[in-house]
Model the fold of this input.
Amino acid sequence: MSEPPGTFGPMKTLAATRPDAIGIALGAVLDALFGDPRRWHPVAGFGRFAGALERRLYADNRTSGAKFTAVAVGAPVLAALAATRLTRDRPIARTVLMAAATWSALGGTSLAREGRVMAARLSAGDLSAARAQLPNLCGRDPSALEPPELARATVESLAENTSDAVVAPLFWAAVAGVPGIIGYRAVNTLDAMVGHRSNRYARFGTASARLDDATNLIPSRLTAALTVAAAPLVGGRPSEAFRIWRRDGSHHPSPNSGQCESAAAGALGVRLGGRNVYGTRVEQRPHLGDGRPPTPADVRRAATLTTAVGAAAAALAVAARLATTRRRRRKPTHR
Done:
């Protein structure tokens, strides 16, 4: 259906030439204002779809896991490609589509909010409430953790998830538009569902875990670089954050998490890493940084880093998409 003359005014003029860039900006603003959608979250719907697909395709081998990953990621990407094609000549619809995809994929505001809740509970000395808060941030067993370990777990989760829930979705939105951001969120959700180490998923989840590693390779390092730049906002020094990142970034067992966590450790002046308990599994992680153990105040500073890095990443994503649009408009058409 065509839009009547004058509809949306200046918004229509902007969207006509820059729908993806405007959509990314609007989605980031919606996340900043409201956080994650509280009802009918698309990621929850995708999780139900992936769960049903897993029940049909599961077998304890890597081939089945690869088929599962291909279908679970391919289906939403194909749907996003179709929606993008349908809105190609409808700039307002294209803008709304990108804004909705961006908002649904971002989690920075909710992530920082959960971190501040933990800081408040630790500051109040409410250990039981702090332990109850930790599952909102990571999968560690909080039952025996004392305040310093709860603070460390929160800072590490904020650092890692600033990449997973903020920078990476924006990066893929800038690189590949709506299909990119939808595809990334599908990959990251699958990693959370089947990519962890367990008897059931040791082989079946390999493809999902490896694909998640690959899609986060650049975003995790971009997150670290933005964390270095944002260090003065939390009382840190970029030179120290950069030094710790370069020295300790590869010490983590994950090829990506260590990049974000080491840069955050340097920016905050704290030491991360140590003994982590995940149910019956215990992991001894290498130490990152030279500082003291994190405190509740450091948790609040880490939440500030999440917000600052997210804002910078959003600005970069909008700028990158604008540059892509300009290049396409300048490209000569051969008939």
Observations:
- Residues 16-323 form one domain.
